[in-house]
From TrEMBL:
Heteromultimer composed of HisG and HisZ subunits. Its main location: cytoplasm. It comes from Niallia nealsonii. Coiled coil: none annotated. The lineage of its organism: Bacteria, Bacillati, Bacillota, Bacilli, Bacillales. This is ATP phosphoribosyltransferase regulatory subunit.
Length: 394
């Protein structure tokens, strides 16, 4: 074994130590319970998928895919997201009735990182996919459920930004004329480089009125008032339809009593190219990245032979843990220290406590270097040593 790689991990991979693992699992259980209350059913998909199906259908850049060959020479990928695999399953096995599907997942996804990136190449997501419903009510349910699950996780200070990719695409195409020119400007929005956006607009060969409209576009962020401002800015009927959808969504969130956590941001775009309509991101204090995102992807299932509407969201567990702050350190394990002549008694006591739902370890006292250190590690210490009775050390 090379000493150079003895303690190293592949680029972007991380270890999860016991305290973090327990904290994360506790949070996931709370969120899973809440998601199930909304009628969603959890599903699992393979870690490996075919590149030509799920790999090409996902919105992840090709250079971020982990690829390998199977024994038959087929190219496989470690799943880069969960939306495409679930779309595959839904299209092939579940969409047999004319009923929407409410599916959920808790899984790891894999995206290769560049050496200078410093980001994880494997991370866990918990999320839902609502498939078979094209109404704005489905989008509203997804957003309300995301808010509900984050509350259940214990997160208090967070805010959702909601946009509409159809509005952005229509508005830019209307003014710029070509998709290439629209994509070039959209890139600044994705990077949230608003200074670069303004400079780019100033250099374009456009009328002063169109340049002014593109500059005013950056002001489409705020509350319900943004809707009327957007109506005044857009001239295309398709763009106005997108605003109508946002207006309807706002009314739905008011009925859910969650509009206070929401801001409209019509400059919002995503690297997920399969989004077709409403999309959103959630931010929390002290975290520099979105802790979750979602949106509508009505065209994705067509790649698997089905034509139907779909929407969903995913929450990044690593970002959520960062938002929740300090990891809770719990000492909920009972330790029974025993000498050789009382081993059987220790095992019987441990069995009794485990039957009562208590976490217990038994430890030969000769295997402990520092008995006093045990009090820092465990909730309760029981000493079964020699012929004396049991001593409990709190």
């Amino acid at each position: 074994m090379s000493s150079l790689f003895m303690f190293e991990k592949p680029l972007g991979m991380r270890d999860t130590l016991p305290e973090t693992y327990e904290t994360k699992n506790k949070i996931k259980r709370k969120m899973e319970k809440d998601i199930k209350k909304w009628g969603y059913q959890f599903i699992e998909t393979p870690t490996l998928e075919y590149y030509e199906t799920v790999g090409s259908a996902s919105a992840i850049l090709d250079q971020q895919l982990f690829k390998l060959l199977d024994q038959q020479g087929h190219t496989l990928v470690l799943r880069p997201d969960m939306t495409a695999p679930i779309a595959r399953v839904a299209a092939s096995k579940l969409l047999t009735e004319q009923l929407p599907l409410r599916l959920a997942y808790n899984a790891s996804v894999f995206r290769a990182q560049q050496r200078e990136g410093g980001r994880p190449a494997e991370f866990e997501q918990i999320g839902v996919e609502y498939i078979g419903d094209k109404t704005i009510s489905a989008d509203g349910e997804g957003i309300a459920l995301m808010i509900s699950s984050l509350k259940e996780a214990g997160l208090e200070n967070f805010q959702l930004s909601i946009g509409h990719i159809g509005f952005v695409q229509t508005f830019f195409l209307q003014i710029l004329g070509t998709k290439d020119r629209a994509d070039a400007l959209t890139k600044y929005l994705y990077e949230k480089n608003y200074v670069g956006y303004r400079q780019h607009v100033d250099k374009l060969s456009l009328s002063s009125i169109d340049k002014q409209r593109l500059h005013q576009f950056l002001k489409l962020r705020g509350g319900e008032e943004v809707i009327n401002f957007a109506y005044d800015l857009i001239e295309d009927n398709k763009g106005k339809s997108a605003i109508d959808e946002l207006k309807q969504l706002w009314e739905i969130l008011v009925d859910y009593e969650e509009a206070g956590r929401v801001k409209l941001d019509l400059t919002l775009v995503s690297h997920m190219s399969y989004y077709t309509g409403i999309l959103y991101e959630v931010y929390a204090e002290g975290v520099g990245f979105p802790i979750g995102s979602g949106g509508r992807y009505d065209l994705l299932l067509e790649k698997f032979g089905k034509s139907t509407g779909a929407t969903g969201f995913a929450i990044r567990m690593d970002h959520l843990l960062e938002a929740l702050g300090e990891i809770e350190q719990t000492k909920d394990i009972h330790c029974i220290l025993f000498s050789g002549d009382r081993r059987k008694e220790a095992f019987e006591l441990a069995k009794e406590k485990r039957a009562a739902g208590i976490k217990v370890i038994t430890q030969d006292i000769n295997g402990v270097g520092n008995v006093d250190a045990c009090t820092k590690q465990y909730n309760e210490i029981s000493l079964l040593v020699g012929k004396a009775g049991m001593e409990v050390v709190k």
